[in-house]
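Retro notes, item 3 of 5
We never archived the inputs for the adenosine-5'-triphosphate complex last cycle. Fixing that now. Sequence and ligand:
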Amino acid sequence: MMGRHLREGVKNLIRNSWMSVASVGAVAITLLILGAALLIAFNAQQMSQYVAGQLQVNVYLKQQVTKAQAQQIVGEVQNMPGIRSVQYVSKEEGFKQLEQMIGTQYHDVLGGLSQANTLPDKLIVKAANPQDTVTVAKEIQAVPGVDKVDSGQQVVNRLLAFLSVLRNIGLAFVLGLLVTAMFLISNTIKITIFSRRREIEIMKLVGATNWFIRWPFLTEAMLIGFIGAAIPFAILTLGYRSLYVHVGGVFPILTFPLLPVSAVAIKLFGVMLLIGLFVGIWGGIMSIRKFLRV
Amino acid sequence: MMGRHLREGVKNLIRNSWMSVASVGAVAITLLILGAALLIAFNAQQMSQYVAGQLQVNVYLKQQVTKAQAQQIVGEVQNMPGIRSVQYVSKEEGFKQLEQMIGTQYHDVLGGLSQANTLPDKLIVKAANPQDTVTVAKEIQAVPGVDKVDSGQQVVNRLLAFLSVLRNIGLAFVLGLLVTAMFLISNTIKITIFSRRREIEIMKLVGATNWFIRWPFLTEAMLIGFIGAAIPFAILTLGYRSLYVHVGGVFPILTFPLLPVSAVAIKLFGVMLLIGLFVGIWGGIMSIRKFLRV
Amino acid sequence: MIEMQNVWKNYPNGTIALQGISVHIGKSDFVYVVGPSGAGKSTFIKLMYREENPTKGEIFVNGFNIGRLKPRKVPLLRRSLGVVFQDFKLLPRLTAYENVAFALEVIGAQRQIKRRVREALDWVGLVDKADVLPEHLSGGEQQRIAIARALVNNPTVIIADEPTGNLDPETSWGIMKVFQRINDRGTTVVMATHNKDIVNTLRKRVIAIENGRIARDEAKGTYEYED
Amino acid sequence: MIEMQNVWKNYPNGTIALQGISVHIGKSDFVYVVGPSGAGKSTFIKLMYREENPTKGEIFVNGFNIGRLKPRKVPLLRRSLGVVFQDFKLLPRLTAYENVAFALEVIGAQRQIKRRVREALDWVGLVDKADVLPEHLSGGEQQRIAIARALVNNPTVIIADEPTGNLDPETSWGIMKVFQRINDRGTTVVMATHNKDIVNTLRKRVIAIENGRIARDEAKGTYEYED
Ligand SMILES: Nc1ncnc2c1ncn2[C@@H]1O[C@H](COP(=O)(O)OP(=O)(O)OP(=O)(O)O)[C@@H](O)[C@H]1O
Ligand SMILES: Nc1ncnc2c1ncn2[C@@H]1O[C@H](COP(=O)(O)OP(=O)(O)OP(=O)(O)O)[C@@H](O)[C@H]1O
Ligand SMILES: [Mg+2]
Ligand SMILES: [Mg+2]
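Structure as it came back at the time:
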């Protein structure tokens, strides 16, 4: 029996070609936009993780600490739990970095400052988990020889707040697109079925059960959903792959790494197929219902 | 005669209520997403202008210039063409600003620096047109008493490049949405008309001219487009207004001003109405054509 | 087989189509339903396969209580009937063959579909139009496909609403012979018709409906509407 | 009025519906077109209002050369005719009144629409069904609305495809009286029919089509298809 329904579904799709193209087109273009938004969202999330991964604790050592003692402290910190990396920055390196950081605008101002100005030795510590940055900073404070610890708490908080605002806007937009896609797809299926309400009524009058009528429509809706998801998926994956290859896997200007094609493709395929197929079927069931009451 | 067509269009819309609701819904939700994207895009453009407006030329005066001479130079620069504003920053103020700018991470490092370190007096000059910043800087270089001029050329260029990438991504997305909206709306109208192809054929067989048949359909498409544009316009304008009032006209975290409601509403209304109405009509004309050949 | 007791039908727009119909049609009866245009013949027939629900009164068809029938059971009722609709109601996307086969597929018949459909098409003389879509058939050909569909699954009751309205006299008599043969095998036939010739020649029971009421119910009756 | 010279019609699916029809129908003629189901009567009629284009041959209707007619001119041809379609072709979203009025609105008539529509509805006896949608009318009532629509704008030629197929004999004779009256006023009437009674009683010219050819063309002819 399933064989008949599948056959009928495919047959309807083909005989009804004009309408089928319109429906598949509507589903495809809706999912294309949604998919593009998802691609950006996935990468933005990856970026925010990448940026969070840059968070660091600056540990300033006391003036009287010698180079040898400093190396000892480095070892000690390295052995603490929850630490990913420890980097030692000497006074001299520190001055160079300060010069660079202050940058062009105030560069000449520093010209008057002698290198003799005593900068302290510094350790740059990264937590294994960016969220633990502040906790790690507190623990390091207790290590002897350590003068001041700066976890950049303010910067951290401001950055995380900014990223969360960005994420929320993005999320709201993607959710909006998702709801839109679902509405539009089920709407398209609805209109398609509406235009065939007389046929449904006739089938009912000839003695067909509700499921006998539903199945071919559902296979058809499923096919529309599947093709309508496959087309934009192909376009997006190929487009993203060529972009990825073109820029060498790193987003220019912002210089942060893009997600590899394979990682993105699976998620994208899942979301798009899920929407295409299941919204199609659900929309189909809901709108056939109206016309089965004969 | 126009009266009849308008009347028939409205009548069809009402009698065909199920399909009408579906069509208006599809148009409305498409334009809602497009409108939201446009609102963000308008504000992003405004932001990039705002940021560009922050561009400035730092003019460092020679050490020997007295406060009185400095005031004279300020007046001179102010009278040059293409200048929006000139702000005088004394040595002392300059040091405070440097402290602030260096920020938390390196703050204690500066503790060792005495205020006696000779910072030069400084003028902060803004060009009337941000793009002219570099040109203005060159002209100021020629003024006597000026030591160095820093237009931050590197920063300017990097910032402008970053903004243009952002703008391009946004533009591509909005354009994509625009095309989608146009496709979906004309597709919806197409399906609506397809489901009434028999009626069109009958009218033709009874002796109606093509335009006699088209007009009621077009008024109907126009009404669908209009209502489908008005609903999301109302939602977006009210939503944006309440957001604007809620945050006091300034976007939090980034602290840049939002566009006022009135400025946004007109553009939004224009774009949405244009798409809703004209895409509706165009889609209508194109798809009726098929069925008029009887 | 078919039993109606004081059946009324008011349409939602206020038209009272039937006003107290009581009738009994036994197994293997052959009944003509006659009456002027708009008298209520189609309504009378639509109640039997539950296209319309009665406003008042009891209807039993093949043991189903129409007024109390659960929606789930309606397909079972309809499968026990063969219905020729006044407006044919062919599925526009299916060929003539597929339209007839549909009535067999609906009941889950798997075997001999091909043979049985060919046979039904042969009864109505349209074997060579098997692969044509309804919109490419003449009016009379469409009507004959509708008849073939009603006959194909050997129903116990045939209900036909003006099955010869679009047929020439010769073809009409061909169809009547098929109905007669099926009736001889024990199938009940209920047929609304305007065809005076047929009613007056092939004499059967005649139920005349006028203005929603049974005006006459005669065994071996005549059409009796002279101009 | 209507002139056909060696007209052939092959449908795209290969059916040859007409094979060399030549006929002349003059002003205020009254012609019955008879023939078995699928003979080509409807095709013959569809060519006159250019629903179908001839494959070969020349057709002139009311001075229009059908084969060479520009699409822009087709509405003018159709407005000069009143057509009753075999499948009615009523607009489903318009009431009975609006369906009839549509034929007047199409020609740009502004005045007296109400009076003329009422009059046409009166001819077919359906004034009290004016505000009903087609799907809420009986088969015969729908057919009569289709007839009223064809008559309402006083065409010079009435083309009717089985206009009494769904009507009881009494109502059919009422319609025939209207056709006769209109014909007396000088309107040409071409009517495909299976109604032997009418053809043999109200004697007119009979064109018999069989297998796409004119088998017989007699003034004051008879139906001549006995069972
Ligand atoms: N649109 C079409 N496409 C293909 N074949 C067609 C089409 N319309 C009619 N035919 C075929 O052409 C032949 C003549 O059809 P036509 O409708 O003219 O017959 P008719 O004389 O009107 O019959 P009836 O009395 O049954 O209405 C038939 O064999 C029919 O199947
Ligand atoms: N769905 C409906 N809604 C409202 N009124 C209806 C509906 N169907 C039929 N009627 C009305 O009910 C009455 C009886 O209609 P019915 O179709 O039973 O007549 P009939 O005897 O079959 O006529 P015909 O010979 O013309 O087919 C008519 O007045 C008709 O207008
Ligand atoms: Mg009826
Ligand atoms: Mg015909």
